[in-house]
Amino acid sequence: MSSHAYIKLVPSSEKGSVTTEDVIELFQYYKDITGKTGKQLDWQYGEASFPYEIKEKPEGKGKWFYLKSEQHNYHIMLLGVDNELVRDEDGTEREQTYIQITLPETSTFGDKGKANEFSKFLAKKLKGELHLFNGRIMYFYPRK
């Protein structure tokens, strides 16, 4: 059975909404910074920290993409961006953007570890609310 994690952008998040292009840019940034760490350590850390290729299909353009790996311990994970209507505490409705990370049945334990790592990275950068695969919630935005 597939499992899901969500990064929800709340009113105090860095941005009000994101697109798949924004998420891909954040992954490019992640690859750059881990590559620089690898240079400092004189080790190929960049390849170990991001063992995936970013792939987009025409039917998913602007809505979802996937990360595919040819390495032994990794396989695939899907990422999508969408909106939902939520009701605030005062009763007003607003549209909330979220990023969904899906691990299909064919995903490995390595994929789950990387998905947790990537979801925390994205939630920190966007100052969002992270709903983990196990149902727990992590808050990366300033709370009152």
From TrEMBL:
Q: Which domain of life is it from?
A: Bacteria
Q: Which InterPro entries match?
A: DUF1885, Rbstp2229-like_sf
Look up the coiled coil feature and give its residue ranges.
Answer: none
Q: Indicate what this protein is called per its UniProt record.
A: DUF1885 family protein
Where does this protein come from, organism-wise? Answer: Robertmurraya kyonggiensis
Q: What is the lineage of its organism?
A: Bacteria, Bacillati, Bacillota, Bacilli, Bacillales
